[in-house]
């Protein structure tokens, strides 16, 4: 193709390349120049609108067309084209589109032609980078990776530093949840136990005269349960019930040992005035001389077993405790039902009730209320006198424990508040918390009953004007050691 067939002027290199491509396309399509219209005027008319739009979007610099004035990156710009020159940019339209555009151009009039700015030639050297101003968003492909910060480098309140939190495994989340629930339950249990502990009436720890005993172990906790028929804790009367509660955590046993009230023993310790006491008398009179401390000293001195703590309850409290759990079920004989009449009438007198309240007319498997259960535990003149009386007392305590373990939480809560508010002890609150934990874990322990003196280890005696039980002290000690510690 002749490079000077465009009105006598040399063609632009882009135009020349375009013309060559157009001729190749025409030869392949089988068209002629007359069909398509290759005259320069037709091409300018077809692309006049495009050049005008391009010029509006990309205005030419002021010194465009001047010698060496429009150089871009070292290449001089082409001189400004005259009107009517063919543009090398754009695509040749189809015949129908070209004709339609020529008709539109003829209706609107001839537009002045301004060629589009020329592209700079590619060179080996890269052009200087353009300054980035007010760049709001960058491409995700060119964005550098986020810097990972260590935990120590992160600062509180910083908006420029980020860190990712690793997702935990489901098993790890499960165990974390379990640990949190256990901690919450542990704290709730401690708060509940502390509330119950605060209900107990605390007494001061009196001075002890007997502090040594050979039967002592860290695995065994001995608490003396003292029951008295006195009407006030400040009244030092004779004790009707003396039961040593021994919890052995290694053997997993709970042993209730009843001490017969008529045992003739040596009472050693301090009396209520702080003076030394060393007399022989019945065991239940020790509480009259010097209260709970002297009673513990007497047991520890005679039977060589360590007793550091006690819990005191009077028979009025016993009635409320049994009533709080709805009574207990006891097998009562007709003889026992008749013998309960005298102690029950005495209790009704102190309770301010009618003399015949809660009296039993027959025996059988009966649900005894607090008043009736107390009369059953105090019954002395039916059966083997005081020996069978202690058995009834241990039976009643065991029935209460079994009833509480099988009750719902509401009944257990009522029982705890009622019983603990009626008790008095020399234990500190910290010691009571520890004892409460041991009591919870000992609910499934084996419960055993024991009585001192055992059969064959005593004889009936008479000292002064009262009948007594003369006991074999060595036999009693051996029985305690074998049943509780070994």
Mass-distribution shape: elongated
Number of strands: 13
- Give the low-confidence spans: 31-40, 69-91, 158-162
Supply the helix-strand structural class.
Answer: alpha/beta
Tally of helical segments:
14
CATH class of the domain at 201-325 and 407-485 equals Alpha Beta
Please give the largest β-sheet.
7 strands, mixed
In CATH terms, the superfamily of the domain at 201-325 and 407-485 is: LCP protein
From the 3D coordinates, which CATH architecture of the domain at 201-325 and 407-485 would you assign?
Answer: 3-Layer(aba) Sandwich
Residues in helices, as a percent range: 40-55%
Overall average residue pLDDT? 78
CATH topology of the domain at 201-325 and 407-485: Aminopeptidase
Instruction: Report the span from N to C terminus.
Output: 124 Å
β-strand amount: 15-25%
Q: How large, in whole angstroms, is the Cα Rg? A: 55 Å
Strand order within the widest sheet? 1-10-7-2-3-4-11
What is the ordering of alpha helices and beta strands? HHHHHEEEEEEHEHEHHEHHHEHEEEH
